[in-house]
Design a protein that fits this description.
Elements lengths: L18 H5 L4 E8 L2 E8 L5 E7 L5 E3 L19 E5 L4 E6 L6 E5 L5 E2 L11 E10 L2 E9 L5 E8 L5 E6 L3 E7 L5 E7 L10 E6 L6 E6 L7 E7 L2 E6 L15 E9 L6 E6 L20 E3 L5 E7 L2 E8 L3 E5 L10 E2 L6 E5 L7 E5 L9 E5 L16 E5 L8 E6 L16 E5 L13 H7 L4 E6 L8 H5 L8 H15 L8 E6 L1 H12 L5 E5 L5 H7 L7 H5 L7 H7 L12 E6 L7 H8 L5 E6 L9 H23 L1
Parallel strand pairs: 31-32, 31-33, 33-34, 34-35, 35-36
Antiparallel strand pairs: 1-2, 2-3, 3-4, 5-6, 6-7, 7-8, 9-10, 10-11, 11-12, 13-14, 14-15, 15-16, 17-18, 18-19, 19-20, 21-22, 22-23, 23-24, 25-26, 26-27, 27-28, 29-30, 30-32
Helix pairs in contact: 4-5
Length: 657
């Protein structure tokens, strides 16, 4: 790798983030678990055509593939999937039960041996297609969410228990959506989350408990219909049930900022042991938002520890934190210097915890260590990828959390700002750098702080990057998230422009070379910003929304009513949909636009990009064959970034000519 010489030298610098780096063997990790001293996680392997594998670290430290080579653990329930596997230990071996993305159905593999079907094929009597997600063991009992798609396209959701014989017993049905079925330790109660259209899991859900003996039926403990409260992530600690809620705690101050924080209920039985009441147990609100938008199954942000303690992964001012709660001392920060993706899981037989670590200055890894240990005492079990030889800390741009005042509504506005990296393997910056503005999707997503190719690609090439947590983002409380209701395509655009103007005013970037890029929902924000602001000289829409009316007609079941809250009820608000759609005002978009889209996108169909691009003279569209919503192929990700870089440099060159 060629080192950068002093300014004025003609030596060519080769930035350290290259297409070759992004297309080499790079693992992705998700959903870490601990079972009887084993640490397990799901791992995708691009060098095996993106195949997913459940990997386990045995108590002796050895690593094992726990699903066979012909298996593909995964599910497309809700399109985004997640929670496709669960594991239990029978005293001799680890059993992994998983949904198979290719073959369908549920399968069981014992210690990585040949997978055997658990409950038959993906199709049942009458041509009904079954899918399974959010699998969870309690002892040897397995519960999960099952969706049945009928030949006429109607989908029904239910909670089921899958018997060892393969018989599937329905436990709950009737709601539009279910999530997180969890059996109590004694097996009597089933806790779960349910909600109905037109709500999303971050707008209105309920926490329910079903008495599986039939003595008391099903009770709603928190949230539910009409409560404007999101409850998620139930988990048990003996007879106590915990969940995360953004409701208003009892005795909360008038200025309480509603955010996801743990709540608790204690089961109290009568003298006969039959009638059980659920008594709320007061907990002080966590000093961070403990929760993530439930786009996928299998997320875990909080866990119970002995002596009434809780361990949680949260977000404070846009930055991930790990928190420990003790009944006597309250909340405190722990795992300083570590950045878990989900809550760390305790490993049986010791004080160690395991987590998926995603720091801002190093590749992701599966990590183990104690809560109080120094960084040097932590063990990297498996790394996703390795930094190229010679890369120094100066070659890596790290985020600075910045905030800006807003004129109305909840604030301040937050963003992550990255200055161009100044290491020996980075392009030199002459004067003020150009700026790439990133608009995340969702729009309930959030600007992450972990080391990312999509950021470092730009910062090692002399660009600054601004990743905006516009209002509507998660991690800042319910009011911040809900501020976008009815204002998508308006408030997010204002916030992105406000953040850009803020860094321009600080003198950090070149105001003549600001570009904006966004994916999915962020694509609509990009196009609206180009139409309504002169701050940007170009933009890129990655599988972005252009026609809201078409999206309503074509999108999938999980998001079928999502726009009712973000835009207006459909079809009564059709005029608003038309007014917010970039396809309605192509003449307002005069800056060059690059469209990047996959032809297998089930969330935002390719037709959305094609319809608008054909009406924009200063635009181009590149289609990636076989790619769905969110590029997954390393080759496609690398090629798309090369194409985007060339696009911006061409725009800059034409402006300078």
């Amino acid at each position: 790798m060629t080192a950068r010489r002093s300014s004025g030298s003609s030596s060519v610098v080769h930035p350290w983030v290259t297409p070759a780096l992004m297309t080499r063997k790079t693992r992705n990790f998700a959903e870490i678990r601990a079972v009887e001293g084993w640490v397990l996680w799901q791992e995708s392997r691009p060098d095996e055509q993106g195949r997913s594998v459940i990997v386990g670290r045995a108590p002796d430290g050895s690593l094992h593939d726990l699903t066979p080579p012909d298996a593909q653990p995964g599910t497309e329930m809700h399109v985004y999937g997640g929670g496709a596997w669960a594991a239990m230990y029978d005293g001799a071996a680890i059993h992994v039960v998983f949904s198979d993305r290719k073959r369908g159905g549920l399968w069981r593999s014992v210690q990585g041996g040949e997978a055997q079907p658990v409950c038959g094929a993906a199709y049942g009597e009458g041509g009904i297609a079954y899918s399974y997600a959010d699998l969870a063991f309690q002892g040897e009992r397995l519960v999960c969410v099952r969706e049945a798609e009928h030949p006429d396209g109607v989908i029904h959701a239910e909670l089921v228990e899958v018997m060892p014989s393969g018989v599937v017993c329905s436990l709950q049905s009737g709601a539009d959506f279910y999530m997180a079925p969890r059996l109590s330790p004694d097996g009597r109660f089933l806790a779960f989350i349910a909600w109905q259209n037109p709500h999303m899991p971050w707008t209105e859900t309920g926490l329910y408990v079903q008495d599986l003996t039939g003595a008391q039926g099903t009770m709603c403990l928190a949230g539910g219909a009409g409560q404007a409260c999101s409850v998620m992530g139930p988990f048990w600690a003996g007879e106590r049930l915990y969940a995360l809620s953004d409701g208003v705690p009892e005795h909360a101050a008038a200025d309480y900022n509603r955010h996801w924080t743990p709540i608790a209920f204690e089961a109290k039985a009568d003298a006969a042991g039959e009638e059980v009441t659920w008594q709320p147990q007061p907990l002080p609100p966590a000093p961070a938002e403990i929760g993530l938008p439930a786009w996928v199954f299998g997320q875990s942000c909080c866990a119970a520890l002995p002596e009434g303690q809780l361990l949680a992964r949260g977000v404070r001012h846009g930055v991930p934190v790990t928190l420990l709660y003790h009944p006597q001392t309250g909340w405190k920060d722990v795992l300083i210097g570590a950045v878990p993706d989900d809550v760390p899981v305790p490993v049986e037989g010791g004080r160690d915890f395991a987590w998926l670590n995603s720091p801002p200055d190093a590749p992701p890894c599966v990590m183990m260590g104690s809560l109080e240990s120094e960084i040097e005492g932590r063990i990297c079990v498996r790394q996703a990828w390795a930094l190229p030889d010679g890369v120094t800390p100066a070659d890596i741009a790290v985020p600075e959390t910045v905030s800006f005042p807003v004129e109305e509504g909840p604030g301040p506005l937050y963003a992550q700002f990255y200055r161009p990296a100044q290491g020996p393997h980075c392009e030199a910056v002459q004067g003020k750098p150009p700026l790439v503005v990133i608009v995340h999707g969702g729009p309930t997503g959030q600007a992450r702080t972990d080391l990312s190719f999509k950021v470092q690609w730009w910062t090692c090439r002399g660009f600054a990057v601004l990743d905006v947590n516009y209002r509507g983002s998660t991690g800042f409380g319910r009011a911040y998230r809900a501020a976008l209701d009815g204002r998508w395509g308006v408030l997010d655009v204002q916030d992105c422009c406000r953040a850009v103007q803020g860094v321009v005013d600080k003198g950090w970037v070149d105001p003549q070379r600001c570009v904006i890029r966004g994916s999915s929902a962020g694509g609509l924000t990009v196009l609206s910003a180009l139409a309504h602001s002169s701050l940007f000289v170009a933009g890129t829409s990655l599988y972005g929304v252009t026609d809201l009316r078409g999206l309503v007609a074509e999108t999938h079941r999980f998001e079928a009513c999502y726009l009712d809250g973000l835009i207006a009820p459909w079809p009564e608000g059709e005029a608003v949909y038309r007014a917010r759609s970039p396809l309605s005002w192509p003449e307002a978009i005069t800056a060059p636009v690059l469209f990047l889209h996959g032809d297998a996108d089930r969330v935002v169909p390719l037709s959305q990009a094609e319809a608008l691009q054909s009406q924009l003279p200063a635009s181009s569209l590149h289609i990636y064959q076989g790619e769905g919503h969110g590029f997954r192929s390393a080759e496609v990700i690398a090629e798309s970034l090369e194409r985007e870089l060339a696009f911006y440099r061409d725009v800059f060159a034409q402006a300078a000519a």
